[in-house]
């Protein structure tokens, strides 16, 4: 009698395991389907509003880390030479009046005469 019990419990255990695996597979496929549908809805919504669909934040970070060869928490010396160089900025210096006693100019000095500023 004990051998029959062991056999029945073994068969029932196998059936339950197969059913649980099938349930997990169906749930995983359902969640994958939901994710794809939401992704498509997001892309269509962005295109309808006239915007370009943006990649998620972690994708952008991954791209940046792979191009710079610097990983967070990793070796800081690998990308240190890139950040140690000083940036040189070429600027044009202009003196700006406070504008209290002078009328605003109608033309900008860097534009040819005849083009007016359009201020709202």
UniProtKB/TrEMBL annotation:
Record key words, sorted: Membrane, Transmembrane, Transmembrane helix
Segments of skewed composition (Basic and acidic residues): 108-120
Domain of life according to the entry: Bacteria
Keyword Transmembrane among UniProt keywords: yes
Transmembrane portions of the chain: 20-48
Region of interest (Disordered), residue spans: 94-120
Protein name (Swiss-Prot/TrEMBL): Uncharacterized protein
Record organism: Tepidicella xavieri
């Amino acid at each position: 009698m004990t051998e029959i019990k062991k056999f029945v419990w073994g068969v029932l255990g196998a059936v339950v395991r197969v059913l649980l695996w099938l349930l997990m597979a169906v749930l995983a496929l359902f969640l994958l389907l939901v994710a794809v549908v939401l992704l498509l809805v997001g892309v269509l919504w962005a295109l309808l509003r006239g915007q370009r669909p943006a990649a998620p934040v972690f994708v952008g970070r991954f791209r940046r880390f792979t191009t710079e060869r610097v990983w967070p928490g990793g070796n800081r010396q690998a990308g240190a030479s890139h950040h140690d160089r000083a940036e040189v900025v070429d600027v044009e210096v202009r003196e700006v009046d406070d504008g209290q006693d002078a009328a605003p100019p109608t033309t900008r000095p860097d534009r040819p005469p005849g083009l007016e500023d359009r201020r709202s």
